[in-house]
Amino acid sequence: MTTAASSESAIAASGEPATALDVILADRALTVVRAPEIPDPVALADALAGAGIRAVELTFTTPGVLECLRRVSDAGRAVIGAGTVLTPGQAEAAIAAGAQFLVTPGVSEQVAEVAARQDIPVVMGAFTPSEVMRAMELGAAAVKIFPARALGPGYLKDLRGPFPNVRLIPSGGVNAGNAAEFLAHGAVAVTAGTDVVPPAAVAAGEWAEIASRAAAFVRAMNSER
């Protein structure tokens, strides 16, 4: 099995700068943040990156998300992405604000076109085999299986049968108790959500608590290596 350390070594040996996807695959995780407000997005990203989850997805469900993306991008200490991207306009605005990757809840040809034109990886949401196929046809860098809680880790193993080379990233219902199992069943990375970044803790600026949760998630995620 390829580990984060070996992935990082391979990236360094290539002489090329790490892309957002490189970082997600090396860490085997990204964090999706859904909160009513983010008082200090740079402190939030620093807390997560310091605990071992360097890719942070801020969603369009958070008011003022474009300014949050811009501030984290300017700080340059985390890999920042935009999530819940529903329209090409949102995709364009997120990239202009510094987003290094995009995440959609479903299959979107229009968002895929923007991502391709701007050379930005898109993690496209899907659930059924047909949706996975369509996401790959549209050039998705990886496919987010959402909601992952619906069928659990075994569904990832089933999908790996017909899609052995597709990068699958479960989202929705992934936590410290099941992250390692999702990885063992074929996920290339997992999405940490409210288990790591509870909306109330984000809104209250509880960065030490969030860092502790992220570190515990990473330890649990790697427990079956």
Name its key features.
225 residues, alpha/beta, TIM Barrel, single chain, 45% helix, 8-stranded parallel beta sheet, 11 helices
Could you characterize what this model shows?
It is a single chain. By secondary structure, the protein is an alpha/beta fold. It has a single domain (4-11, 18-221), classed as TIM Barrel, CATH 3.20.20.70. It contains eleven helices and eight strands.
Instruction: Indicate the overall shape.
Output: globular
The CATH architecture: Alpha-Beta Barrel
CATH fold label: TIM Barrel
Q: What does the average pLDDT come to?
A: 92
Biggest sheet: strands, sense, closure?
Answer: 8 strands, parallel
Q: How many E strands?
A: 8
Termini separation comes to: 8 Å
| Quaternary organization | single chain
**Number of individual domains:** 1
Task: Give the strand content.
Answer: 15-25%
Query: What's the gyration radius in Å?
Result: 16 Å
Uncertain regions spanning at least 5 consecutive residues: 1-15
Q: How are the strands of the largest sheet arranged?
A: 7-6-5-4-3-2-1-8
